[in-house]
Amino acid sequence: MKKLPVLSSDKVIRLLIKAGFTYAPKRGKGSHVALYKTDSKGIKRLVIVPKRKEIPRGTLLSIIDQSGISREEFLELL
Asked: Which keywords does UniProt give here (predicted)?
């Protein structure tokens, strides 16, 4: 399994939008951006991304987990 790179919040947001997420306009406040996606089962997934130059690996793993995307799929989006 490949090691996760250090990414900025802007890069993570672009990757999530590429995966089908859209902005949740009433959810993101201050230093965080909220994105959501409704999957094929009708389940709405909400992902909160902190605005930072470098997102720590633990936070990145949490974002990947919240999104419902596998780690491999996320790395392929890079």
From this structure: Endonuclease, Hydrolase, Nuclease, RNA-binding, Stress response, Toxin-antitoxin system
